[in-house]
From TrEMBL:
Stretch list, region Disordered: 455-483, 593-618
Residue ranges of the TM segments: 491-513
Stored InterPro entries: Gal_Oxase/kelch_b-propeller (IPR011043), Kelch-typ_b-propeller (IPR015915)
The protein's name in its UniProt record: Kelch repeat-containing protein
Source organism: Podospora bellae-mahoneyi
Keywords: Kelch repeat, Membrane, Repeat, Signal, Transmembrane, Transmembrane helix
Signal peptide range in chain numbering: 1-32
Record carries keyword Protein transport: no
Comp. bias regions, Polar residues: 455-479
Length: 618
């Protein structure tokens, strides 16, 4: 009997009892006092939401929130409810994080109050689809559907249930959470993830998922990645992130990075699983399903990493950059306080200035206003959902061109161009300097490489393919790998020979001088019965004969950590939006909870059984 089958009902029963107790304790309180959009003064934290961009607005979906009443007084939370409104922020006007008005559109039913939705955005038709995610506590669950939100031009819209074509059975495809989700313009994609008793009505176990789910925006067909395809084969993937980049190849590519390697043979806590190193990225053509991988260089982000957010940008010069921010390391029980840019086709990482506001995970990022990233919400460890966010309303922005963190959005920002540091890197190199993992990858990026690198070398003119991946750690500097120009081969050989002759002459002179000095020293010591004398007496001549002494030079520099501009502010404990302030926050699924002791299991994988069809991927 699997432990997941026995643990899940116990966890659910405990949550039900706690919920009932909280209901009794909070009898008579006013739900209206608790808002999906509290005032900036009362805002504490928002986490586990998703965001997308439609019709000049950012839409924020799902998640949980903590807040204060009258600034710093904690109040009781209403039971069972998460954020049950669709929130929006305008993008056609400039605003500041501390004062922007966030619009709330109530949802028609409670089953839409979930964490970590999978959102698929159909920009052409002005709609996004929501599927998967998990219900806090596993309460108010219903049979799963694909939901559709049709946006208007004012930051509002209307929810509905999407009608799927005949033959598509949702009960044969498991919804999940913690998958890598993105949209290509014609379809939505989810890779991997995990299914738990909180993601699907009637499920009594936890299963890490392999495979890929696709949702076609035209046909509305939800399927298992067209014939069981996944860029990782049968390997379960948990907590990875995906971004679609158009303009590469015929159909664009989906880039996948980070996450853990799930297990199906035995129960292993998430922090003890293997992981996908950020040094390597996997990408594939969403139409042909051709898959590649590439080794990166530069300031490679530490691994393992889940719960980080990403956003993608493309410049008119042909470059493509992926922004990543924060995340959680469940192996070492820490949350990252860092951000990076991965630039293609160079496949080089650049570390960004330390983000303000402290460590952050389980937030969401979107590309906005030509060249800006908007990060929404996030927290440190699980208990930090109660600590006030130094970032007003949890809205932090980053300018990809200026490499600058901001607390205000610029609706008139110029078009995106790569940062100067990234452009300089390309100007000092040729495409042959890239350590291409395969000839296929080099060919895929031939057009952008020709446009960006100084010489414009392409696979047709000069092949720099190298199938050997670097095994050692990569330094955070990016040295110029170009060979010096202007000298012929004969000249270089002559210089080398002259250098060798000079070196030999120097060594010969030094040996001659050393031999004569040794002879004088022996003559002196033969007439001295006391040996070599010093303040400490006679010294053994054999020890003096040593040719060298190792001496340790003092360090001339100290590494210092610069103080951060923002510091986490410790404030009185606030309430959860859906539970009493004194209740154990059990609504997070096992993979969000703190790392357990050896006797516990927070992400127990299970073996696939005969009771599930080959279409059960999510």
């Amino acid at each position: 009997m699997e432990k997941t089958s026995t643990m899940a009902p116990h966890r659910l029963t405990s949550a039900l009892l706690a919920s009932l107790l909280a209901t009794i304790l909070t009898a008579g309180t006013t739900d209206a006092a608790l808002l999906d959009v509290p005032s900036p003064k009362n805002y504490v934290r928002r986490a586990l939401a998703r965001a997308t961009v439609l019709n000049n607005h950012v839409y924020i979906e799902g998640g949980q929130i903590t807040q204060y009443e009258d600034g710093f007084s904690s109040i009781r939370g209403r039971v069972e409810n998460q954020v049950n409104s669709t929130l929006s922020i305008p993008l056609n006007e400039s605003w500041k994080s501390e004062s922007v008005t966030i619009k709330a559109t109530p949802k028609p039913f409670e089953s839409l109050a979930r964490n970590r939705w999978y959102l698929w955005t159909d920009t052409k038709n002005g709609v996004f689809y929501a599927w998967g995610g998990y219900w806090p506590f596993g309460l108010e669950m219903v049979t799963d559907e694909v939901y559709k939100f049709t946006a208007d031009s004012r930051g509002g819209g209307e929810w509905g249930v999407e009608t799927l074509p005949n033959g598509v059975r949702l009960d044969q495809i498991s919804p999940g959470e913690a998958g890598a989700v993105t949209s290509t313009g014609t379809m939505g994609i989810v890779i991997g993830g995990q299914a738990t008793p909180w993601t699907q009505l009637g499920r009594d176990n936890t299963r890490q998922l392999s495979g890929m789910i696709t949702f076609d925006f035209e046909s509305k067909a939800l399927m298992n990645g067209t014939q069981k395809f996944s860029p990782f084969g049968d390997t379960p993937v948990v907590g990875a992130s995906a971004e679609f980049i158009s303009g590469v190849g015929e159909n664009g590519i989906v880039v996948v990075m980070g996450g853990h390697v799930g297990r199906t043979d035995k129960e292993v806590p998430l922090g003890e699983m293997d992981f996908f190193d950020m040094r390597n990225v996997t990408f594939f053509d969403p139409v042909t399903k051709e898959t590649w991988s590439q080794v990166t260089t530069g300031d490679i982000p530490p691994s393992p990493r889940i719960g980080f957010c990403t956003a993608a940008f493309s410049s008119k010069e042909g470059g493509h950059e992926i922004f990543i921010f924060g995340g959680s390391n469940e192996r070492d029980y820490l949350v990252y306080e860092d951000a990076y840019i991965l630039s293609l086709p160079g496949f080089v990482w650049t570390k960004l200035p330390t983000p303000p506001g402290g460590r952050r995970a389980y937030h969401t990022c979107v590309a906005v206003g030509n060249r800006q990233v908007l990060s929404v919400g996030g927290r440190g460890r699980e208990d930090e959902i109660q600590i006030r966010d130094p970032i007003p309303q949890g809205l932090l922005l980053f300018d990809m061109t200026a490499i600058e963190w901001k607390l205000e959005y610029d609706s008139n920002a110029a078009a995106y161009v790569s940062a100067n540091a990234i452009k300089d890197w390309y100007e000092k190199r040729t495409s042959s300097d890239v350590q291409w993992s395969s000839e296929g990858v080099e060919q895929l990026f031939a057009t952008s490489a020709k446009a960006l690198f100084t010489s414009g070398d392409s696979p047709d003119s000069q092949s720099g393919s190298n199938t050997d991946s670097p095994s050692g750690p990569t330094t955070t500097t990016m040295p110029d790998m170009s060979a010096p120009a202007g000298l012929s081969t004969g000249a270089m050989v002559g210089i080398i020979l002259a250098a060798v002759i000079c070196l030999a002459a120097i060594i010969g002179s030094w040996l001659f001088w050393r031999r004569r000095r040794a002879g004088r020293h022996d003559a002196l010591t033969e007439t001295d019965d006391l040996g070599e004398l010093g303040v400490y007496g006679a010294v053994d001549r054999k020890e003096l004969a040593s040719k060298s002494h190792v001496r340790e030079m003092p360090s001339d520099a100290q590494v210092e950590e610069l103080p951060t501009k923002f510091q986490d502010t410790k404030v009185p404990v606030a309430h959860y939006h859906e539970v009493d302030g004194g209740h154990d926050y059990a609504e997070l699924p096992t993979y969000h909870r703190p790392r357990p002791r050896a006797s516990q299991n927070t992400l127990p994988p299970v073996e696939l059984d005969a009771g599930y069809t080959e279409r059960e991927l999510m």
